[in-house]
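Dear support,

Our group has been running a series of protein-ligand predictions, and this particular one with nickel (II) ion is the one our PI (initials K.S.) wants archived with full inputs and outputs. We had some confusion internally about which version of the output was final, so please treat the block below as the authoritative record. The input we submitted was:
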Amino acid sequence: MEITFLGHSCFKITTFEGKKILIDPWIFNPKAPKDVDLGPYDYILITHAHGDHLGEVAKLARSSVTEVIAIHEIQQYLLEKGLPRVIGMNIGGNYRAGDLIFTMVPALHSSSFSDGRYAGEPCGFVITLEKDFRIYHAGDTGLFGDMSLIGELYPLDLALLPIGDHYVMGPREAAKACQLLKPKKVIPMHYGTFPILTGTVEEFVEELSKYPYQPEVIPLNPGETLSLK
Ligand code: NI
Ligand code: MN
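Confirmed final output from the archive:
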């Protein structure tokens, strides 16, 4: 499988069997690479309705090959916008799509549309790929104790965790999150996009060094890809 960081919280995953997944499709974020794959994707996942996560979904999901997966309230909104295929689910549920499983898990944050309307609860996703390879995208979140349940129930090969602080976990909280989630590898996200997202990879690594559990930290620059067998 391959995972490409597209800046901020946006990731492209190509699964072992070649399915293309895009998470939090703000593909024109200030740090995004110039040559972003515009799809069509097989699946686009939305963690919550803030503009830096909903992003360009309305443009990217026009094709009927693309299935958008989001919480019920965002599903209703995107269907109103005319997108052809949007799956609505809710926290705690699993959506099985071929050999993949998308599990919607809690996130501690807020969520509203740009006009202020309620957009349901924010969420994260555990994505179980073929071969039971599991990726957790935390969405925007603060630290919460039930991350230990996520780690226990869905042993994680890879976690995508926010470290930018202010709106999401900072480095100290993200290091503690690793103790609860126990992922094998971590890719930091949601930092450095704007000046207010001050958390850095160096601080995150420093905070992690104070704890017994040390996942492998793999910082990716926007446009960089991690390939795993
Ligand atoms: Ni947000
Ligand atoms: Mn955000």
